[in-house]
């Protein structure tokens, strides 16, 4: 596990997502796992935040032009439209229900809608594996609500994946779900980045992530920026 302070927020996205690949290449809890071939087919699944869309996030991939991403297939799905409790029941793109904004470490969790969203993400991952991508070369990343879904999807997936990157997310389920995390899932490394001045998902919600991952026995690295 590792804590990193980033002082230039403009570089946060590039450093963290690139770091996800670097992290999984150099650090594995079980050294017997084969390191992914950087030239093999890889897959990055990006999950957007509340009210956003997949196409609006597609320019992110243009930041990554280094050789490690030469054979990378990106996917930017859009969340279905659902009523959202924190927005007085307004219908908008939402992976699962959120009961309050700002999100704190103690915010209510809607696990029933979360589980449905996780199942949909798992179908996307299964489809990519069926197409020939090694699970060790599959990375799930997300921002805000998408970051919370990323965490749940990676931890509850039955196989070891290349890594997960949580940007300004939170732990969207209760600690009782720790018992559902398989030994293989615990070997998937998690990178977590959060802004200290985030007014939507408070920094305290992000800070609750590392202790949760530590308790679950998951490999993690946490970075934060002051702006």
Automatic annotation (TrEMBL):
It holds the Pfam family Abhydrolase_2. Residues 30-216 form the Phospholipase/carboxylesterase/thioesterase domain. This is Phospholipase/carboxylesterase/thioesterase domain-containing protein. The keyword Transport does not apply. The lineage of its organism: Eukaryota, Viridiplantae, Streptophyta, Embryophyta, Tracheophyta. InterPro entries: AB_hydrolase_fold, LYPA1-2/EST-like, PLipase/COase/thioEstase. Belongs to the AB hydrolase superfamily. AB hydrolase 2 family. One of its GO terms (cellular component) is cytoplasm. One of its GO terms (molecular function) is palmitoyl-(protein) hydrolase activity. SUPFAM superfamilies: alpha/beta-Hydrolases (SSF53474). The keyword Cell inner membrane does not apply. It comes from the Eukaryota. The chain crosses the membrane at residues 6-27. Keywords: Hydrolase, Membrane, Transmembrane, Transmembrane helix.
